[in-house]
Design goal:
The chain has about 120 residues and is mainly β. The chain is built from no helices and eleven strands. The radius of gyration is 13 Å and the shape is globular.
């Protein structure tokens, strides 16, 4: 049974910082492509950042220079350090493993990848 659990969300003022965590069980983050997605109310699920099993990282233009994705293989946990937060960063943030599409849906799995339940981030 694969499970991804996000934590660290909350409400912050613009310019503040948060660190999101994604604790993974049932698979190894070291062997997986790990990603963060986000979905604001009324909007589609959007890709934010990814880190590969080989250590490479990628960021959406909207967060580049402000967010940092990282992975702790010993703890089997992925992180997203979010700095200089803006109101447009407000969304539910989802952790995903081996995602094949931007779904933001915890009910899918297998070939569609594995997703957490999401954690709310509100910036005002």
């Amino acid at each position: 049974h694969v499970q991804l659990v996000e934590s660290g969300g909350g409400s912050v003022q613009a310019g503040g910082s948060l660190r999101l965590s994604c604790e993974v069980s049932g698979l190894s983050v070291d062997d997986s492509s790990m990603s963060w997605y986000r979905q604001a109310p009324g909007n589609e699920c959007k890709w934010v950042s990814s880190t590969s099993a080989f250590g490479g990282t990628e960021y959406a233009d909207s967060v580049k220079g402000r967010f940092i994705i990282s992975r702790d293989n010993a703890k089997n946990t992925m992180y997203l350090q979010m700095n200089s937060l803006k109101p447009e960063d407000t969304a539910v943030y989802y952790c995903a493993a081996d995602a094949s599409a931007p779904l933001c849906d915890a009910d899918v799995g297998g070939d569609l990848g594995y997703w957490g339940q999401g954690t709310q981030v509100t910036v005002s």
